[in-house]
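Please, structure for the following, as tokens.
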Amino acid sequence: MADSYLINTGDPRSVTGHVVSGAFASGIISSTVNYKKYQNGEIGYAKAIQNTVKVTTQGGIATGAAISATNHLGPNGGGLFQALTAISLGMAGIYAVEVADQMITKSLSESTDESLESSDVNEAEHDDEDTIASGE
């Protein structure tokens, strides 16, 4: 007699527990890689932290989506459509984190540019004051 599920995946696993496990695993890997890049001067401290947080979050989302999809394929799951839905939601979550990271990077870049421009203006004002004071 054929079973009604696609794959015998065993007992359903805790999605929340695997999100945490995936985040820990991704965090360990990404923090090690980013620390090495920071030590070599390839990236700055803030970028290393930002990238570690991003990859840690994405790793947790990916692991949770994968476990959820696998649970749906098992004997007590909802089938292929629900598994594909879980995968799609995971992909959307990872993409959302990527977009948020790009927005943060852009925002930080713009605020740095503005502060550089204001310091250039202040330097130019001081140069004018020095010229006036010296009578040149």
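The longest helix spans residues 80-134. Residues 15-134 form one domain.
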